[in-house]
Amino acid sequence: MSTLQFKTTINCGGCIKAVTPALNQAVGAGNWQVDTANPAKILTVTSDQATAAQVVQAVEAAGFEIQPAA
């Protein structure tokens, strides 16, 4: 199981609701979470099959900014 982390602009419950369909389709329900309490709004994806490119594409398609976490 690999873990990918990204900084995002997903910063509230409404944002999470907006991005949920895209992320569920890309990486599967239950395989991701966003830490909205963290100033960088860290998205953590845990999956054997998802690639960073798939995650970035899904989040950007939902209208949010995303970049790899340092």
From TrEMBL:
Q: Which residues are in coiled coils?
A: none
Annotated HMA domain ranges read: 1-67
Alphabetical list of Gene3D superfamilies matching this protein: 3.30.70.100
GO MF annotation terms: metal ion binding
Q: Which SUPFAM superfamilies match?
A: HMA, heavy metal-associated domain
> What InterPro entries would the database entry show?
HMA_dom, HMA_dom_sf
Q: Which domain of life is it from?
A: Bacteria
Name recorded for this polypeptide: Heavy-metal-associated domain-containing protein
Question: What is the species listed in this Swiss-Prot or TrEMBL entry?
Answer: Hymenobacter cyanobacteriorum
